[in-house]
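tool=predict chain=A
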Amino acid sequence: MHIKGIYNSPKGSKEEPCQASSYKRDILNYLLNSSAYDARIAPDYEKDVATEVDVQLFVTSIDSINAISMTWRDSRLNFSHISNISVLELDQRRIDDVWVPDTYFQNEKSASVHTVTVPNKLFHIYNDGFVIYSIRLSLTLSCIMDLRFFPMDDQTCSIFMESYGYSIENVALKWNPDDPVIFGLDDNDEQTLPQFYFYKPLETKGCSTVNSFNTEFSCLEAKLFFQRNLGFYMSQVFIPSMMIVILSWISFWIHVDAVPARVSLGVICVLTMTTQSSGIRSSLPVVSYIKAIDIWMAVGLLFVFAALLEYAYINVQTRKHRKQTKVMSSN
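tool=predict ok
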């Protein structure tokens, strides 16, 4: 492994460039000295001013948030007066010695931090006290959906971020003004999910919440607007159910005396529609209202069941007619 370093020696000094690493280490030790720097308090806590934290999300695929980056300014980490070095890159093991925002995702169901081969964290300190902190993670977020028009529905899902322990008086979150959310997709990829696609650009805004202790916290919200792709349901639900209904109508052309054939065809079509409807419901959450797909499957089942009832009625009427004809002919 080759390490390249740039070291600016003090004027008149004859130190070699190989001493750059130890020089940077001395700067870090100076900045993070426990007697002068306290990682347990926010940068502007003593000034009674909220520390502004810029937040940026980096998404490699729509169904997985890959990284969150935060930037802020900590005047305690300003080292421009002692060195010409522009930036210090901290090892992930030294990050615990520096204050970082306690940002969390309000609607998170599960999350994991990438730790292969080490915890994937980035921490850069610039000579003016500007700090960049980035961490790779994967999140599963909750989203309340309205399925009344399923599968011809559109959904709005939000990403909520908030400071957990610091009130709005100490930490103020705000979106990165240039690119709040970056989709790191290839040029040939589309911003789509297997079942959804974006039908309008995402929206970002700042917000605030008040907890049960009447304390106000700074938060951020990003809204994603999805519309369901009908391709799967056209090929797996709508077209097959229409074919089953048409198949049940074939019994109208079968001779009325072919009782086993017509009854078997009608019963099979009814059972097939029932099984298909059950399979669709099993893949959806239980809701108390009727969905559009329920109406479609119910109407299809009604047509198939009506075809079976039609044969039962015609069979009875045919036997009655034959009986009357036989009686009249015998007389």
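The two ends are 112 Å apart (CA to CA). The domain at 17-228 is CATH 2.70.170.10 (Acetylcholine Binding Protein; Chain: A,).
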